[in-house]
Amino acid sequence: MTKTIPAALAFVLLASVAQADTPVLKVLTYDSFTSEWGPGPAVEKAFEAVCGCDLVFSAVGDGAELLARLQLEGANSDASVVLGLDTNLTAQAAATGLFAPHGQAAANDLPAPYADPVFLPYDWGYFAFVYDKTKLTTPPTSFEELAASDLKIVIQDPRSSTPGLGLLLWVKAAYGERAPAIWAALADNIVTVTPGWSEAYGMFTAGEADMVLSYTTSPAYHLIAENDDTKAAAGFAEGHYMQVEVAGKLAHAPQPELADQFLAFMASDAFQSIIPTTNWMYPAHKLADGLPKGFEQMIAPEKSLLMTADEAQAARKPALDEWLTALSR
Amino acid sequence: MADRAVTLAAAGLAAAVFLLLLAPLGALGLTFQGFAFSAPELAALRFTLLQATLSAALSVALAVPVARALARRRFMGRSALISILGAPFILPVIVAVLGLLAVFGRAGWFNDALGLLGLPSFSVYGLQGVVLAHVFFNMPLAVRMILHGWQAIPAERFRLAASLGFTPRASLRHIEAPMLREVLPGAGLVILVICLTSFAVALTLGGGPKATTIELAIYQALRFDFDLPTAARLALLQFALCAAAFVVASRVSLPSGFGAGQGRDGGPPSPNGWRKVVDTFAIVLAALFLALPLLAVVLNGLPGLVDLPETVWAAAGRSLAIALASTAISLAAATVLALAAAQGRGWVALAATLPLAASSLVLGTGLFLILQPYFKPASLALPVTMTINAALSLPFAFRILAPEARTLYADYQRLGASLGMGGWAWLRWVVLPRLARVLGFSAGLVAALSMGDLGVIALFAGEGEATLPLLVQRLMGAYRMETAASAALLLVLLSFALFWVFDYGGRRYAGT
Q: Which residues have CB under 8 Å from A255's CB, separation 6+?
C-alpha cells in the first residue's frame, strides 16, 4: 500500500497541470455547503458557466472552524472568498484585518436590517425548536412555557457549535438580565448538550427528546425531500433569533476581480434559488419565482431578533459564563 | 548484532514520535509563562480525571471475570464472541452513542423493559452514562488484552499445578495472579488515557457542561477563541497526565516470569460447580451488553444500505487505503518498539504510550501551521492522515505486543543466541510464530481504528478527499440521518472485516 502516497501526489500534480490555463477562484467554506447534498455543486456549475474560471471550494467543519482556519492561514491563504461565517462571528473575523470591503451595492431582503461594508449575506434562518407533531400536540409558545413544561430538549454546546452559540444569544437578546433565570429554569428540560448540530438532530430523530434546537426551516427538509409532514417548528412569542450567513472577500485575494464577480453573483437569482432546498435556509434576496412549494407552511415569527456583530461579540463571554453557571449546578 | 539494530531503530522511532507530538505544541506557541489554570479548566480537569479513573477501573474489573471465563471454557460461538469483542472499540463515536442510546436511552429498550416490569426509568445522562459508554468501548479491549495474558501462560504450568493438586484458589494465587499483575496495569493505563481525551462521548452522554473535559476546553480554545497557546497548554496537561499514569502503571506492573513452555495451548483448567455458573453468567452478560447496541447500529443502518450514493464507495476505498497504509507503518514501528522494550528500554514504552494522550485537533492544527508555508494542505490530506493514524494507533499495537515480546525475550533469547541465529532467522522462526496471535490482533485493531478516525482529515481535506467517516458526518449535516446510519453501518462492516481478517489470520497462524 506504500504506492498510495506517490499515486496521490501524482494525481495532485496532474490535476494542477490541467487547471493551469483557466484562472482558479478558491472559496473557503464549511463542510455542508460543499457536500454533494449542499449548494456547492450547483453553485459551482452556475458560476463556472458565466465566469470562464474554475471555482474550487475547500471546506472545513463549520462556521467557527472556518474562522479558526482563516486565522491559521493568515495572509498565506490561497482563497479569495470566505463563505459561511455567521454574524455572531463577523466582529472577530473583521478584527483579523484579513478582509477587504466588498464594495457591492445590492440591498438584501432580510427581515431585520443588515448592512456591513465587509460582509455580504447570502442566506439566513431563524433558530427554533423543532418537534414531531404526532407526538407533541400543544408545543410551548415561549421559553418560559418550555421551562415550565416537562418537555425534554436537546441543545448544542455554545463552546463548540454555532447553533449552540445562536441559542445562547437568542436567550440573551430576548431576556437580557433575566437570561440566567431562564437557563436555570430550562436546566431540567435539557436532556443533554451535544458538541454539534448533527448529534443533537440525530438524537431527536431517534426519539431521545421531544424537541431539538434547529431552524424554522428544518421541517421543510422533511416535507420536501422526504414527503414527511410530521415535523414542525414551535413559534416563540419572544421572537426568534436569526442566523445570517455571510461571505467576504480576502484582502490578499489572489483573484480579486473574480472574487468581486462571485460576490455579485451571490446576490443573483441563479445563486439564491439554489439555497432553499440545499442549505434549507431562506435566500438573502427575494427569488423571482418565489420560494419552493412547502416553504409557505413554515412558521413566520412575528419578531426577529438579531444582535449586531459588535453586540454579539461583547455578549458572548458573559452569556457563556451565565450559561455555564446555570447548567453546572 | 540484531539487538543493537533494534535499539537504534527504536531510538529513531521514539524520537520521531516525540517530535510529531511535541512540535505541534511549539507551533501553537506554547509558553511556560503564567502556567496557571482558570477555575473552569480546573473543574474540567477534575471531571476528566474522575470519569477516566472510574471508566478504566470498571472496564478492567469487569474484564477479568469475562477474560477468565473465555480462557477456560469452550463453547459454540466462542471464537465469534472473541472477534466481536473488537467491534465496540472501532465504532465511530456518534454511531456508538446512537447505538447505546437505542438500548439505554430515554426511549431505549432497557427503559421499555423497566417500564413493562413497572420499575422506575433509568437516565443514562450523567456521569453514569459517560462511564457506561467508556466501559462499552474499552472493556472488550481489556478482555482481549487479559485473554492474551491467560493464553500466554504455558500449558505446562497448569498441568504441573493440577498434578500437584492445586485448588482453583491456589492456582489463581500462584499462576494467574502474577500474570494479572503484569497485564492489568498496562490495560488500565491504555484505557485511562483514552478516556482522558474523551470529548464527544463525555459531553453528549454527560448531560451538559458539568461533564466538560479538557479536550472540550481545547476545542473551545481552538475553534471559538482562537487562543492557540491555551490549547497548547491544555494539550501539554493531557500529556503530563498520561506520563504520570504511565509512571504509576510501570511501578505497579511486575513481570511474571513463567519461563518457556513447549508452546502448546492448553489454557487453564475449567472447574465445575459454582465457578461454571459464574463463568456462564459473565459470558452471557458481557455478550448482551456488547451485542445489543451493536444490533441497534445494524438495525438503524440496514434499510438504506442497498441504495447508498456512489460517493460513499469512493470514500470507502480511500478509507481502506489509508487504513492499510497506517497499519503497515504502525505495526512495523510497534514491533520494533516492543522488541526494544523487551530488552529493558523503559523510555521506549513512554514514547509508545504518549500518543494516546494527543489531542488530534491540536496535532492537526500544529501540523497545519508547520506544513502550510510549504505545501498546499489539501495535497497532504492523505499522507498526513496516514501518518497521524499510524502514530495515534501505535500505543494499542505496542501495548498488545509488548508483554508477549518480553516473554519471548526472556524465554528464547539464550536459546537463539546459543544456536547463533541471525536477525532474519530469529525473526522468521521465533518472533513471527510466537507473536502471530498478538500481531494479528493489533494489526486488526489498528486497521479498524484508522478506518474510523477523522480527527485530522477534516482539517486538511479539500474537495475530493473525503473519507468514509467524514462522509457520514457530511450526510448527518445535510439532514440525511438515515443514509448516514447506513454509511456508518458500511464503515462498521468494513472496519470489522479488516479487523477480522487480521485477527483471524493471526490466531490461525498461531494455531488456536
A: A23, A24, A25, A26, A53, A80
Where is average pLDDT lowest: B300-304, B332-336, B371-375? B371-375
For residues A101 and A250, membership in a common domain is answered with yes
> Within an 8 Å CB–CB cutoff, is residue A209 touching chain B?
yes
Residues 6+ apart with CB under 8 A from B51: B127, B130, B131, B134, B195, B198, B202, B206, B211, B213
Pairwise CB contact (< 8 Å): B220 & A159: yes
- Is B125 within 8 Å of A218 when comparing Cβ atoms? no
CB A115, CB A238: distance < 8 Å? no
The structural domains of chain B, ordered by start, are 1-30+306-512 (1.10.3720.10), 43-296 (1.10.3720.10)
B211-226 pLDDT, tens per residue?
888 988 888 888 778 8
Give the structural domain span for A50.
19-124+243-295
Q: Do B372 and A59 touch (CB under 8 A)?
A: no
Indicate if A224 and A110 belong to the same structural domain: no
Q: Are residues A194 and A312 in the same domain?
A: yes
Which region among A210-219, B157-166, B235-244 has the lowest average model confidence (pLDDT)? B157-166
A208 at B interface, C-beta within 8 A: yes
Distance from CA of A174 to the nearest CA of B (A): 22
Nearest to A96 by CA among A251, A235, A238: A251
CATH number for the domain that contains residue A182: 3.40.190.10
Tell me the nearest-neighbour CA distance from A96 into chain B, angstroms: 11
Residue A6 lies in a domain: no
Smallest CA–CA distance, residue B204 to chain A, in Å, is: 5
The answer to whether the Cβ–Cβ distance between A5 and B107 falls below 8 Å is no
Q: Are residues A51 and A109 in the same domain?
A: yes
Complex ipTM value: 0.83
Q: CB distance from A178 to chain B under 8 Å?
A: no
Indicate yes or no: CB of B478 within 8 angstroms of CB of A323: no
Q: pLDDT band for position A128 (50/70/90)?
A: very high
pLDDT digits (tens, 9 = 90+) for A215-255: 999 999 999 999 999 999 999 999 999 999 999 999 999 99
pLDDT digits (tens, 9 = 90+) for B282-300: 999 999 999 999 999 999 8
For the beta carbon of residue A160, count every other beta carbon within 10 angstroms: 25
Q: Which of A59, A187, A195 sits opposite B199 (nearest CB)?
A: A195
The total of structural domains in chain A comes to: 2
Residue A2: pLDDT band (50, 70, 90) is very low
Q: Does A193 touch chain B (CB under 8 A)?
A: yes
